[in-house]
Amino acid sequence: xxxxxxxxxxxxxxxxxxxxxxxxxxxxxxxxxxxxxxxxxxxxxxxxxxxxxxxxxxxxxxxxxxxxxxxxxxxxxxxxxxxxxxxxxxxxxxxxxxxxxxxxxxxxxxxxxxxxxxxxxxxxxxxxxxxxxxxxxxxxxxxxxxxxxxxxxxxxxxxxxxxxxxxxxxxxxxxxxxxxxxxxxxxxxxxxxxxxxxxxxxxxxxxx
Length: 208
Known about the structure:
- The protein is of the alpha+beta class.
- The chain contains seven helices and six strands; from the N terminus they run ααβββββααααβα.
- It has one domain.
- Helix content is 40%, strand content 22%.
- The chain has a six-stranded antiparallel beta sheet.
- A hairpin with a 4-residue loop joins strand 1 and strand 2.
- Helix 1 runs antiparallel to helix 5.
């Protein structure tokens, strides 16, 4: 997590030297930005690791006032056939991460797997491709690894939410329920997380 925090900071510094933040660089060559469209066009896919993502924004009345848009992050562990959603990362207009959340199967039309299976894929979210920018990809994968324990908890909560809804509606399919969209979420701050990791490392060092 500490290394991931350093990666995030290094990527942000490199992008700032170019005059961008992560989202601005991602969108640089994409033309007009339209709500709901995927950016970059065709998504980003790392064939070696199976990591995939896209960025988009919902209509203004369907997102938080401070949110510009969010990244949907996936893994295709066995090639192009099966797509598994890991987590979504929302950012504000300055590309600062503000929220992590999980979604129901119908939202992304993924191949649903259990929380434990999904958690087993988290460390494989590695982006070595240069599209749209190595710094953007390093930043995104760094954020996910920086918040890995939180993402793990969100995925476990995701399955508990689905199970509770299914128990209340035994004749329906929880994974197709349109009223069940966001399954778990957490407000986040990168500086606060980096500070917490640094303090934890210092406490451990003092205890040795």
